[in-house]
Structure formats: structure tokens, C-alpha cells
Specification:
With 286 residues, the chain is an alpha/beta fold. It folds into three domains: 2-87 and 179-211, Periplasmic binding protein-like II (D-Maltodextrin-Binding Protein, domain 2, 3-Layer(aba) Sandwich), CATH 3.40.190; 90-177, 3-Layer(aba) Sandwich (D-Maltodextrin-Binding Protein, domain 2), CATH 3.40.190; 214-280, Alpha-Beta Plaits. It contains nine helices and 15 strands. Strands 2-3-1-4-11-5 form a six-stranded mixed beta sheet. A five-stranded mixed beta sheet has the order 8-7-9-6-10. Helix 4 links the parallel strand 7 and strand 8 (133-136). The radius of gyration is 24 Å and the shape is flat. The two termini are 28 Å apart. The structure holds phosphoribosyl ATP and zinc ion (ZN). Residues 49-51 line the site of zinc ion.
């Protein structure tokens, strides 16, 4: 039985469960007791506070855990990243009152910075040869400058609206973070049953993740343009081209990367493609 630690409640918990559900794993535990077993896969979930997950994996209480890289780095446990999960994306940034003139990282010399992430901040300051004092607080970091606790803050930023509503501006990014699955690879490799379960799980999670990053595209095009159209949509191996009932027309099907979808559609459109359909992909196995 592979034990997976996930956040009990918070920004990563629903997304972690969603990913497992899309990988076909049923975990019936609506009240989220400490431990829940999957009914159709040899895994058990441990519901914990995110801050406790790295230590729990390090000590072997759980075999792997899902946690933000920010928490992993702050706790300092040496764990292997088994898989990057593509959700919980955020950055860790320095922010100062918006009325301050910022002339580069040296601005922070001799200043006081409030944060809940003193280790990541200290490492970043050392790397940039900045001497500043760190004021460690556990929450509401964004109000620190307003109430006179500190000159600046170092905190998680996602949309940036929390900073703006507290009269702050983001001036430097120390880290980009996302949810990762962590474990101790050397330890896992000594347990063949667990590693086999983990590999099976990874195969499914990767299929879900690849699907999320891609779109299935279908379009109609004049036969004379098909060659040019194919050159802008290479597809997984090669695109499917099917003749339409109407003579001189074809239907082209392919898989496109989500991030470039609009650029490619613009090109397809200008090459004469019509009836372009873009559809989500649930799972993708190459
Ligand atoms: O109870 P537990 O200890 O388990 O949870 P927690 O309260 O410590 O963590 P939680 O659930 O708030 O966040 C879990 C993880 O989600 C974090 O460690 C990050 O890896 C990730 N994450 C992604 C975020 C955000 N986005 C985020 N926006 N964590 C926190 N925030 C907060 C941030 O602290 C700030 O107050 O949102 C605010 C900023 O958001 P914007 O959109 O206004 O910039
Ligand atoms: Zn926490």
C-alpha cells in the first residue's frame, strides 16, 4: 500500500483529489479523516497540514506527498521531486510600499522585511549579497508595512491583487512555485510493490497532465491547402486527413499544445481552414 500525504484543506487539497479522480482512483472519504484508502488502487491518503507533509515523507510516515515547492524549500527537507503537478502555481516575491522609489535589490540593505518564509528569503538575500533583517510572522504578512512592523514584505503572490489592495508593489521575484509530488527515491526503490504502484500512478497522472496541456482540433479545409495546413499542425505523429463528401474538401484532425492554440488557429484561418473545432482532451497516452 503506497501512502500519499495531501493537504487536508486548503488551496492544494481539491486539486490533488481532482487529479487522483481523473487518474481513475476512487477515494470515498467525504469527512476527510486522517487516513482514507482508495477502493480500486493500492494507495492510502493521509490528510495533513501542508507544512507537515515534507517531514512526514522524510520520516517515512508517508511514501510520497503533494506540496508546494515553497513549503518544501522552506522546511529544508532533502526530498526528490517525483512529478511536477502543474497546479498551485504562484511566485514568492519582495514587495514594498508603492510610494517608495525602487532602484534595485540594494534598496533592501539595512531594511526590515516581514515574511512567513524566512529560510527562502535569507537564501535569496545571501545570493544577492543583501544585508537586511527578517521579521518572521506566521500570517497577515501583507499588512506589515501598513502597521509599521516592517519596511517591506516577502510573500506568496498569485494574481497580485492582495499586494495592490495593501498599497504594495512587487519589485523582485525570488521563486516560482507549483505543487509537486515528493518522495525519497532511494527508499522507494527498496520496496518493489510501492515503486510498482507509484509507476502505475505516474503513468496515469502524466496522461492526465499531457491531456490538460493539449487540445484536439478538427477543421475543414480545401484539399489544395491541406499541405500548408499540415505544416502548421504537425500533430502527435502526423495529422489525420479525411476526405469530405463535398469534392475538393478535407477534414484535418490533430492535437495542439494549449499554450499556442490561438497563434496556430490564426494561421489556420488565414490558410483557408473553416469550421475549426477545439476540444479538451481528458487523457493522452503517447
Ligand atoms: O492549513 P495549511 O497549513 O495546510 O494551509 P496554508 O494556509 O498554509 O496554505 P494554503 O492552503 O493557503 O496554500 C497552500 C499552497 O498553495 C501554498 O503553499 C502555495 O504553494 C500555493 N498557493 C498558490 C498559494 C497561492 N497560490 C496564494 N495566492 N498560497 C497562498 N496564496 C495567498 C498568499 O499568501 C497571499 O495572501 O494568496 C494571497 C495572494 O494572492 P493574490 O492572488 O492576491 O496575489
Ligand atoms: Zn500551511
Amino acid at each position: 500500500m503506497l501512502k500519499i500525504a495531501i493537504q487536508k484543506s486548503g488551496r492544494l487539497s481539491e486539486k490533488s483529489l481532482e487529479l487522483l479522480a481523473e487518474a481513475g482512483i476512487n477515494v470515498a472519504n467525504s469527512d476527510r479523516k486522517l487516513v482514507a484508502q482508495a477502493s480500486n488502487f493500492p494507495i492510502a491518503l493521509l490528510y495533513l497540514r501542508d507544512d507537515d507533509i515534507p517531514q512526514c515523507v522524510y520520516d517515512g510516515v508517508a511514501d510520497v506527498g503533494v506540496v508546494g515547492e515553497n513549503v518544501l524549500l522552506e522546511t529544508g527537507y532533502k526530498l526528490d521531486v517525483v512529478e511536477r503537478l502543474g497546479f498551485g502555481k504562484c511566485r514568492m516575491s519582495l514587495a514594498i510600499p508603492k510610494s517608495e522609489k525602487y532602484d534595485g535589490i540594494a534598496w533592501f540593505n539595512g531594511r526590515k522585511i516581514a515574511t512567513s518564509y524566512p529560510k527562502i528569503l535569507q537564501d535569496f538575500l545571501n545570493k544577492n549579497s543583501v544585508q537586511a533583517s527578517i521579521h518572521h510572522i506566521s500570517g497577515s504578512v501583507e499588512i506589515s508595512t501598513g502597521v509599521g512592523i516592517a519596511d517591506a514584505i516577502f510573500d506568496i503572490v498569485s494574481s497580485g491583487s492582495t499586494l495592490i489592495s495593501n498599497g504594495l508593489k512587487e519589485v523582485d521575484v525570488a521563486l516560482h512555485s507549483e505543487a509537486v509530488m515528493v518522495g525519497k527515491r532511494a527508499q522507494l526503490e527498496q520496496e518493489p510493490e510501492k515503486i510498482a504502484t507509484l509507476e502505475k500512478l505516474m503513468f496515469r497522472l502524466q496522461a492526465v497532465q499531457k491531456g490538460r496541456k493539449s487540445k484536439y482540433v478538427m477543421l475543414n479545409a480545401p484539399a489544395a491547402s491541406v499541405e500548408k495546413i499540415i505544416s502548421v499542425i504537425p500533430g502527435m505523429k502526423s495529422p489525420t486527413v479525411v476526405p469530405l463528401a463535398q469534392e475538393g474538401w478535407c477534414s484535418v484532425h490533430s492535437v495542439l499544445p494549449e499554450g499556442q492554440i490561438w497563434e496556430i488557429i490564426d494561421q489556420l484561418h488565414s490558410l483557408g481552414a473553416q469550421g475549426i473545432l477545439v476540444m479538451p482532451i481528458e487523457k493522452m497516452i503517447l
